[in-house]
């Protein structure tokens, strides 16, 4: 049984830990609110540009095969090499979020490799690691890495996204990869962050929804100055926006996961303090009882 002095020291230590985790929880909560606002503001624009580019690409490919051949970012080709842009947290203390993202990236690579192997191919998977946790996962697993980006901070800018997207686009244009997937954590709410995989390159047509025009009745667009000029300016911007949106989602997910993890740590510390206090009282009561018995025994002996 530990002494009362040892128990007091441990209670003091756990209280200090609880203060630290409580402060980190409050900081993460404040950052999460700002990150959540940025995500909600950027989502409509990202969704609209994704739908616009996809529909324009569908219309262009249906009506102008030469244009589809000229725009390499739209061109589908046999997949021999797979590229994965893995966006993960830069810091720890955010629960199982980094592990879930890394697991999603590994699952994507495994599923795509299995699918292509069944078709007679032997694909190679290359990574663009964004964030320390993803970089460490790629290095630890001894996977091929094209580039790494770390320290993107709590407020990533469009310049950060452009640098990341440029690496993916260059690898796609050079033929180093034939398809590029984007893996990141989508912010759903404070307690839910869902790892997702989306195809970044080549551009995919939108999924059919109820109420969409039937095949053969797609909308016709009037281009000014011309289709090729518009697509050459719009497609790189489209890739930048998708990466930028993924960065914002990743930051919001990281801050919310850290807030929840620090709240759980604070609650656990408080529970431990209660248990230690109860133990301390029991030990102290036992010591007092022992002293009383000794006094009584001594008085009887006299």
TrEMBL record:
InterPro entries from the UniProt entry: ATP_synth_F1_ATPase_gsu, ATP_synth_F1_gsu
CDD domains, per the entry: F1-ATPase_gamma
Location of this chain's protein in the cell: Cell membrane; Membrane
GO BP field: proton motive force-driven plasma membrane ATP synthesis
Membrane topology: Peripheral membrane protein
GO cellular-component term (any): plasma membrane
GO molecular function, one term: proton-transporting ATP synthase activity, rotational mechanism
Highest taxon listed in the record's lineage: Bacteria
Keyword entries, A-Z: ATP synthesis, Cell membrane, CF(1), Hydrogen ion transport, Ion transport, Membrane, Transport
Pfam families assigned to the protein according to its UniProt record, in alphabetical order: ATP-synt
PANTHER family on file: ATP SYNTHASE GAMMA CHAIN, ATP SYNTHASE SUBUNIT GAMMA, MITOCHONDRIAL
Stated role: Produces ATP from ADP in the presence of a proton gradient across the membrane. The gamma chain is believed to be important in regulating ATPase activity and the flow of protons through the CF(0) complex.
Subunit (UniProt): F-type ATPases have 2 components, CF(1) - the catalytic core - and CF(0) - the membrane proton channel. CF(1) has five subunits: alpha(3), beta(3), gamma(1), delta(1), epsilon(1). CF(0) has three main subunits: a, b and c.
UniProt family annotation: Belongs to the ATPase gamma chain family.
Name of the featured protein: ATP synthase gamma chain
The organism's taxonomic lineage, starting at the top: Bacteria, Bacillati, Chloroflexota, Ktedonobacteria, Ktedonobacterales
Gene expressing this chain: atpG
């Amino acid at each position: 049984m530990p002494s009362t002095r040892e128990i007091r020291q441990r209670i003091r230590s756990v209280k200090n830990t609880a203060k630290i985790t409580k402060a980190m929880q409050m900081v993460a909560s404040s950052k999460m609110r700002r990150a959540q606002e940025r995500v909600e503001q950027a989502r409509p624009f990202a969704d609209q540009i994704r739908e616009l580019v996809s529909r324009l690409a569908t219309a262009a490919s249906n009506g102008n095969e030469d244009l589809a051949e000229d725009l390499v970012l739209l061109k589908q080709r046999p997949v021999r090499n797979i590229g994965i842009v893995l966006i993960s947290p830069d810091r720890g203390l955010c629960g199982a979020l980094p592990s879930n993202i890394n697991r999603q990236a590994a699952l994507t690579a495994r599923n795509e490799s299995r699918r292509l192997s069944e078709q007679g191919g032997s694909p190679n998977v290359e990574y663009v690691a964004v964030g320390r946790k993803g970089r460490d996962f790629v290095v630890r697993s001894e996977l091929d890495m094209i580039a790494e980006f770390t320290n993107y901070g709590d407020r990533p800018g469009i310049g950060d996204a452009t640098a990341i997207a440029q690496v993916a686009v260059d690898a796609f244009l050079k033929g180093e990869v034939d398809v590029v997937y984007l893996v990141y954590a989508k912010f759903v709410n404070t307690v839910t962050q869902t790892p997702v995989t989306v195809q970044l390159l080549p551009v995919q047509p939108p999924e059919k929804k109820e109420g969409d025009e039937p095949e053969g009745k797609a909308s016709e667009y009037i281009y000014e100055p011309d289709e090729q000029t518009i697509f050459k300016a719009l497609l790189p911007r489209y890739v930048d926006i998708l990466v930028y949106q993924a960065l914002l989602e990743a930051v919001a997910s990281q801050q919310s996961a850290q807030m929840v993890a620090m709240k759980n740590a604070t609650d656990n510390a408080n529970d431990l303090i209660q248990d230690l206090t109860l133990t301390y009282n029991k030990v102290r009561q036992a010591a007092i009882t022992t002293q009383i018995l000794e006094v009584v025994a001594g008085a009887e002996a006299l």
